[in-house]
Specification:
This protein is α/β, with parallel strands linked by helices. The chain folds into 2 domains: 13-244 and 383-410, Rossmann fold; 248-371, no CATH class. It is 40% helix and 9% strand. The chain is built from 11 helices and 7 strands. Strands 2-1-3-4-5 form a 5-stranded parallel β-sheet, with helices on both faces. Helix 3 links the parallel strand 3 (131-137) and strand 4 (163-169). The longest helix is centred in the C-terminal third of the chain and has 26 residues, at 265-290. The termini are far apart. 48% of the residues are buried.
């Protein structure tokens, strides 16, 4: 059976580049209750920090990290209308990032998602008329994006009409070529919060432009009922959210790193080697079972997924791996394929070589950006771009948006 972690999202090597500031506090996340003032606010903002910027003991109300640079000014501007809390979690990348925990990235994202779901449930249970805003950066943006996906699809812990807005910064699962407001090309002002007239929000302009490429763990994210109320901000050249499209091996490597123990070189080599071996086995099983057609002494390679897609599927912990019986079935099927070829090699071998050569050409095309110097020039300063959202003005429109939401919800 596959050893992948269920319901966990893929990772991004760029997380190793994130800031390492620890958020102080003394109470583990599992024991924390979401702080709500004596009066429920019009808008409650939940923040999920990036790699190395949180911990299981992080304070829920201390404004640090990239998300603190956004929510702090919002609460200062409209303290009577907005309250906020930060989700405390490992914020780890296999122990490789200072300030982050020892959890692999994928497990850390899953922990953040669970904490976010619990926090959102607490808020709407305690405050029946309060609306939610959720903000995430980098690893935290991935957890928030997954939360928005499930809420938008009607499968989340809260109804979509209780979510006023979702702001994502450097989202590793940003869809390729996604506009700033996903699903709304050309739109620069978010939709109003449910139940509000939206006069203040209509004056907000999300100033960031859409970036090329997609998240390093792009999964074609869509937001269903939340479409129009989600903003996905990505700076061009930030490898976490604007990775080149034709770089399947890079994406597969990021997925493996997301699940690995990276605390020291020896642990990292052993962990990645084990994960790679399992992934290649899963890819081979899927390739043999799904991409060959046998019929009356004939064999054809008729792929339902390209070789690059088979590789990235096999390394992606969000996609269930083959079952034990599938491995045995693949061995039997491969024996049947080779036996069929042996009966008529002069006809079948040249045909299969031609078909598989075309598949290899597609694989090369799916990785063409990796050998294109013009592509990699975009990422020459990717560390600074990834870490600069709080210092280059990228948060300004998000701050204005949340303040506008609060005014609209309060009727002011």
């Amino acid at each position: 059976m596959s050893t992948r972690i269920a319901r966990i999202s893929g990772g991004t090597a760029i997380a190793l580049l994130c800031g390492a500031s620890l958020v102080g506090g003394s109470e583990p996340a599992a024991a924390q209750q979401i702080p709500i003032g004596p009066v429920c606010p019009a808008l409650y903002a939940l923040g999920v920090q990036g790699t190395g910027q949180s911990s299981p003991w992080a304070s829920p109300t201390v404004d640090t990290g990239v998300i603190g640079a956004l929510l702090g000014p919002v609460v200062s501007a409209v303290p009577g209308l907005v309250q906020r809390s930060y989700v405390a979690y490992e914020a780890g990348f296999g122990g490789a990032v200072p300030g982050g925990g020892a959890d692999p990235y994928a497990a850390s994202v899953a922990s953040a998602l669970t904490g976010l779901e619990d926090a959102a449930t607490q808020v709407i249970a305690a405050c029946p008329t309060t609306m939610l805003a959720v903000v995430g950066y980098s690893q935290g943006a991935q957890a928030v994006a997954e939360f928005a996906q499930s809420v938008g699809a009607g499968n989340g812990p809260v109804p979509a009409d209780r979510v006023a807005g979702i702001a994502l910064y450097s989202n590793p699962i940003r869809a390729s070529g996604e506009p700033v407001i996903p699903g709304r090309p050309g739109q620069i002002a978010p939709d109003p919060a449910p139940g509000s007239a939206g006069a203040s929000v209509s004056a907000v302009q999300l100033t960031s432009s859409a970036s090329a490429g997609g998240g390093i763990a792009d999964d074609g994210t869509t937001y269903g009922a939340l479409t129009g109320r989600v903003a996905d901000i990505c700076v061009e050249g930030d490898l976490a959210c604007s990775a080149p499209d034709n770089a399947a091996v890079l994406r597969a490597g990021a997925e493996l790193a997301a699940q690995a123990d990276l605390r020291d070189p020896i642990a990292a080599v052993g962990s990645i080697q084990s994960l790679l071996s399992g992934a290649l086995g899963d890819a081979w099983t899927s390739f043999v079972l799904n991409d060959f057609h046998l019929d009356s002494g004939n064999v054809d390679y008729t792929p339902t997924r390209t070789l690059a897609q088979r590789l990235t599927d096999a390394t992606d912990p969000r996609i269930p791996g083959p079952l034990p019986e599938d491995t045995g079935a693949a061995t039997s099927r491969w024996n049947e394929i080779t036996a069929t070829i042996a009966q008529n090699p002069l006809v079948l071998l040249p045909k299969l070589v031609s078909q598989l050569s075309g598949a290899w050409g597609q694989f090369a095309a799916g990785n063409s950006d990796l050998v294109n110097p013009a592509v990699w020039i975009r990422f020459a300063d990717t560390v600074a771009r990834h870490n600069g959202y709080a210092t280059t003005g990228q948060l300004t429109s998000g701050i204005a948006w949340l303040i506008a939401l609060a005014h609209d919800l309060a009727g002011s």
